[in-house]
């Protein structure tokens, strides 16, 4: 069972390496697993195998993989960032007789790129705006 | 460096190298199969160690390695570098009134 599992871990290595050294590597991991712990050896084979595989790639291929990983991470992070931006909302209200300060605040927000729209007033006396930054 | 030192005494297989490195490092360094294999591959590419043959023991395949003349020279050069570094640090500590290292 352990021998089979270690053989699976060896799949992390490139085919050439497995063909040439797979049996020796697996049996070494079995020997060490008996004294140091089997899980540790299995993880070590996977980690070293991936490193060996990446080392065998050309520089161009490595650059492409790095660019792809960065692209995936950015694409995954964008909705979270956009959502946080869309969450920035300010609601303002004032009475019709005393709206100068609020009007100046709305003008300042619009100047900073906010979108402000009038909201339906609750009463004839109250004026409201909802400003959001997207 | 420990791997090269482990091979100075003669040919060893991978498991023997791991045990010798653990002894030399007073159990501070415990190599795994993946780490040892990667190191031996690099040392072999650099000409510092070479494969001495394979044997099957108790149904398990073991590969033996030995240090080359270039490997011994590299080990001696590294030892000289470490001694020089230790001397320089020791001198600096002594100049500040601290006792020198043994």
List the SSEs and their pairings:
The complex is a heterodimer of chains A (134) and B (102).
Chain A: H1 2-9, H2 15-36, H3 38-55, H4 59-86, E1 89-95, H5 100-111, E2 115-119, E3 126-132
Antiparallel strand pairs in A: 1-3, 2-3
Helix pairs in contact in A: 1-2, 1-3, 2-3
Chain B: H1 2-8, E1 12-13, H2 14-24, H3 33-45, E2 49-57, E3 60-67, H4 69-95
Antiparallel strand pairs in B: 1-3, 2-3
Number of helices of chain A: 5
Largest beta sheet: strand ordering of chain B: 1-3-2
Helix fraction of chain A, binned, reads 55-70%
Oligomeric state as shown: heterodimer
The strand count of chain A comes to 3
> Main β-sheet of chain B: number of strands, strand sense, barrel status?
3 strands, antiparallel
Write out the strand line-up for the largest beta sheet of chain A, numbering strands in chain order.
1-3-2
Largest sheet of chain A: 3 strands, antiparallel
Rg for CA atoms of chain A: 31 Å
SSE order of chain A, one letter for each helix or strand: HHHHEHEE
Please provide the count of β strands of chain B: 3
Number of helices of chain B: 4
Helical residues, percent of chain B: 55-70%
Which structural class best describes the helix and strand composition of chain A?
alpha+beta
First CA to last CA of chain B: what distance? Answer: 23 Å
Strand content of chain B: 15-25%
Q: Output the radius of gyration of chain B.
A: 17 Å
Average pLDDT of chain B, to the nearest integer? 89
Shape of chain B: elongated
Ranges of chain B with pLDDT <50 over ≥5 residues?
none
Which key terms come to mind for this protein?
heterodimer, A: 134 residues, alpha+beta, three-stranded antiparallel β-sheet, 5 helices, 3 strands, 14% strand, B: 102 residues, 4 helices
Polypeptide structure, described:
The complex is a heterodimer of chains A (134) and B (102). By secondary structure, chain A is α+β, with helices and mostly antiparallel strands. Chain A is 66% helix and 14% strand. Chain A contains five helices and three strands, in the order ααααβαββ. Chain A has helices at residues 2-9, 15-36, 38-55, 59-86, 100-111, and strands at 89-95, 115-119, 126-132. A three-stranded antiparallel sheet of chain A has the order 1-3-2. The longest helix of chain A has 28 residues, at 59-86. Chain A is rod-shaped. With 102 residues, chain B is of the alpha+beta class. Chain B contains four helices and three strands, in the order αβααββα. Chain B has helices at 2-8, 14-24, 33-45, 69-95; strands spanning 12-13, 49-57, 60-67. A three-stranded antiparallel sheet of chain B has the order 1-3-2. In chain B, a hairpin with a 2-residue loop joins strand 2 and strand 3 (60-67). In chain B, helix 1 crosses helix 2 (14-24). The mean pLDDT of chain B is 89. The interface between A and B is medium-sized, with 21 and 17 residues.
């Amino acid at each position: 069972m352990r021998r089979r599992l270690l053989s699976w871990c060896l799949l992390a290595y490139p085919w050439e390496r497995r063909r040439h050294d797979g049996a020796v590597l697996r049996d070494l991991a079995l020997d060490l697993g008996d004294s140091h712990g089997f899980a540790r050896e299995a993880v070590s084979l996977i980690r070293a195998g991936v490193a060996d595989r990446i080392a065998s790639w050309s520089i161009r291929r490595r650059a492409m993989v790095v660019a792809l990983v960065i692209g995936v991470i950015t694409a995954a992070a964008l909705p979270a960032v956009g959502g946080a931006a869309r969450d920035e909302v300010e609601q303002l209200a004032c009475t019709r007789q005393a709206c100068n300060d609020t009007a100046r605040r709305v003008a300042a927000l619009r100047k900073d790129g906010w979108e402000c729209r009038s909201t339906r007033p609750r009463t004839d006396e109250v004026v409201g705006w909802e400003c959001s930054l997207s | 460096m420990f791997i090269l030192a482990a091979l100075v005494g003669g040919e060893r297989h991978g498991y023997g190298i791991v045990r010798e490195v653990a002894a030399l490092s007073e159990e501070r360094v415990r190599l795994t199969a993946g780490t040892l294999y990667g190191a031996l591959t690099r040392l072999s590419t650099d000409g510092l160690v070479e494969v001495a043959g394979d044997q099957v023991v108790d149904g398990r395949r073991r590969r033996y390695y030995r240090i080359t003349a270039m490997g011994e020279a590299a080990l001696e050069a590294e030892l000289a570098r470490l001694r020089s570094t230790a001397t320089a640090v020791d001198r600096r500590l002594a100049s500040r009134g601290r006792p020198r290292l043994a």
